[in-house]
Specification:
Length: 483
């Protein structure tokens, strides 16, 4: 584990080392103009970033791409502008918008029916899962020929590099935190906790603001879909626990530990002792974040940019109403550990080589590109004109201290409607990557446990954990052989 600021420093060091050693060149801080850009193959040219004259394939081809969900209206505007610019650069490529959102329960069906998009979105847990099943194209050759590969943020990109092969392209990342409606706390007479807070602080604050009779909760932990297991894992990590470990060439479930019992007992206390969670607790990510934006809960656990975006742009909140907190430490002096995750793009292995190349070019089209800076500035200005805020990712695909990162920061600094994360909060965030094997299966299993804890006051926490660990072990982990 490493704090978020520590991760950013590590990224800068790794990027500097790559640049100094390097095939892509660039300055030691990860500059945006690598030596040799425009002199290599198609992916090593400026055309791969929408700034050259390469017209792409000689014959017409079609690629389907991940398109943001309807609730992400501003992201759709950015994507529409990107499609326009991409097809101007590559007139023989038709870009079709796909409304399919990645699901680990649907990807196998989509692949078997040859219905998966040419370029689809996924998340940090899925790299090994997709690669082992042959559902993610090996894009190593494309990535190796990419002029800006050394400037990708290694904290994110390395999660999709397996056995030296590249299976995905990082988009953005996060360390899970707690987003707090501080105005709601003050209005209800609840004390706003310090940033360096603990589980006890949460147990004090959440019931102080809750009003179950009025449908108001102090905090809305997710309680259905895989989201519930993902939310709870933050507390497992804060208690010092692990999801799994490799022992003697086997993957072993470890979440039914003493740390796991402490974390699950804390959930039990939030539900039954504090009565601080929603009475209808069966909430997924959209439900919980929506509840926050609507003022029906004071706190929500998530990658911070989502709840902040909805709170400001849909809930009508002011930046002064919202505070991004790290996860609470189990006890004073402990680490504020949150799940380190991210969003990735994966190329469909069933696509033709030409389609795969154009999908890769589309994925990286705006990366390290001045065209993107122009589009970004126009989008932020349009939001300002509409009275909306722009919320950056917590962790970018690039290093913010690099030359390109500084260009992005210069754009942000032009506007007063760009949300600024509190550096003191970011400094406390301690990111821990998700498990490598069958993480979504583990999340789903833990969701069933969490639902039992929320439904049954007399539940035996350790017995539930032991049964869940046994199920995960036999059903998912025992067949794995670690080389």
């Amino acid at each position: 584990m490493v704090t978020l600021l520590g991760m950013m420093m590590l990224a800068a060091l790794l990027l500097a080392a790559c640049s100094n050693g390097g095939s892509a060149g660039g300055d030691a801080g990860g500059g945006a103009e690598p030596v040799g850009a425009g002199s290599g193959g198609a992916n090593g040219s400026d055309a791969a970033n929408g700034e050259g004259s390469d017209a792409g394939p000689a014959e017409k081809i079609t690629i389907s791409i991940y398109y943001p969900t309807p609730d992400r209206e501003d992201d759709r505007k950015l994507e529409d502008d990107k499609i326009r610019r991409f097809t101007e650069q590559y007139p023989n490529v038709e870009v079709v918008k796909s409304d399919w959102q990645y699901s680990p329960n649907e990807i196998g069906i989509k692949m078997a029916a040859n219905e998966a998009p040419t370029l689809f979105n996924t998340y940090a847990t899925e790299g090994k899962f997709l690669a082992e099943r042959g559902w993610a194209a090996d894009i190593t050759a494309l990535f190796d020929d990419y002029a800006y590969k050394e400037q990708m943020n290694p904290i994110l990109q390395e999660q999709f590099i397996l056995d030296g092969k590249v299976y995905g392209i990082a988009q953005r990342g996060y360390v899970t935190g707690t987003v707090v409606n501080t105005k709601m706390l003050r209005e209800r007479g609840a004390e706003v906790p310090p940033l360096d807070w603990t589980w006890d602080d949460l147990l004090t604050t959440a019931p102080a603001v809750a009003d179950p009779g009025a449908g108001i909760s102090g905090i809305a932990p997710m309680g259905k879909a895989n989201d519930a297991g993902w939310n709870w894992t933050n507390f497992l990590f804060e208690a010092g626990g692990e999801i799994q470990a490799i022992e003697g060439g086997k993957v072993v479930a470890k979440f039914n530990s003493e740390a796991g019992a402490k974390a699950l007992d804390f959930y039990k206390r939030l539900r039954w002792e504090a009565n601080a969670i929603p009475q209808d607790w069966a909430l997924d990510w959209g439900d919980a974040v929506g509840s926050f934006a609507q003022g029906r809960t004071a706190m929500v656990i998530a990658g911070p940019d989502g709840p902040v975006d909805q709170g400001l742009n849909q809930g009508g909140m002011s930046p002064d109403d919202i505070a991004v907190y790290p996860m609470p430490a189990m006890e004073a002096g402990g680490a504020h550990t949150g799940v380190l995750g991210g969003d990735y793009l994966v190329v469909n292995p069933n696509a033709s080589p030409e389609e795969q190349e154009m999908a890769f070019r589309y994925a990286t089209f705006d990366y390290f590109s001045d065209n993107f800076l122009t589009s970004l500035e126009a989008n932020i200005q349009a939001r300002k004109d509409d009275g909306k805020y722009f919320i950056p990712p917590v962790i970018e695909y690039f290093d913010m201290e690099s030359a390109f990162g500084q260009k992005v920061k210069a754009v942000y600094d032009k506007f007063d409607n760009v949300y600024q994360y509190d550096p003191a909060s970011i400094a406390l965030m301690d990111g821990k990557p998700e498990a490598q094997f069958n993480t979504q299966d583990y999340y789903a299993t833990m969701t069933n446990v969490i639902q039992e804890v929320f439904a049954n006051e007399n539940v035996d926490v350790q017995a539930q954990l032991d049964a869940a660990a046994q199920l995960v072990q036999t059903e998912f982990l025992d067949p794995i052989e670690v080389k």
